[in-house]
Design brief:
Blueprint: E1 3-8, H1 14-26, E2 30-35, H2 37-47, H3 58-66, H4 68-71, E3 74-78, E4 95-101, H5 103-111, H6 117-127, E5 131-136, H7 143-154, E6 158-159, H8 173-187
Parallel strand pairs: 1-2, 1-4, 2-3, 4-5, 5-6
Helix pairs in contact: 1-8, 5-6, 5-7
Amino acid sequence: MKRYFVGITGASGHAYARELIRGLVRSGCAVDVSVTEAGCKVLRHEQGIEAGTHGELLAQHLAAWVGAEVAAQVRCFDSKAIEAPPSSGTALTGGVILCPCSMGTLARVAAGFSSNLVERAADVALKEGRMLVLVPREAPLSAIHLENMLRLARLGAVIIPASPGFYHQPKSIDDLLAHIAGKVLDRLGLVNQVGARWKGLQPAAEDPGTGAAPPRDPLAGGSGAPGA
């Protein structure tokens, strides 16, 4: 069973992290989670989850957030716990995902400056040549933000902005969350069922009564968000 590290920072969009953790576990993976100090504040505000100051209380409330079945496959670490397994390259992880990733965390990772477990795990992924996925959620983006993203992309990190598409005709916020979570899971190479996949616009026969082609559903046979 592959194990992935999910770092949650102070950027808005913690519902994306919830959907991602669920998707990882349901794809047969174990998950390590750590929340930064700023992330704890946002988690409390956006999701109503009390994680403490550095995530030390997250384990107590994880089942209420992601579901008991998923929580059973998740280990929670205080973001100050630099002695935790994810801080070492010898702890073999399938990859590290920072979701959502604040611009402050992104800048420190780009500079190789690790002030907590989340940033250290990202640094380890880079130095060990493992998958590092960053899910930034910020707008507008300054030149500094863009330069930091470019630097990390050149170092091998994958940047997947939390900017869901609408071509899959979402019916709810959950569909938008699944769109991004599915993209991350696909980039990690994990088989998943997080929504429908784009089928393309298939030729359709004309309606004999009108001579016009009936409406075509490019997502026929599925629902949710495509992974492409």
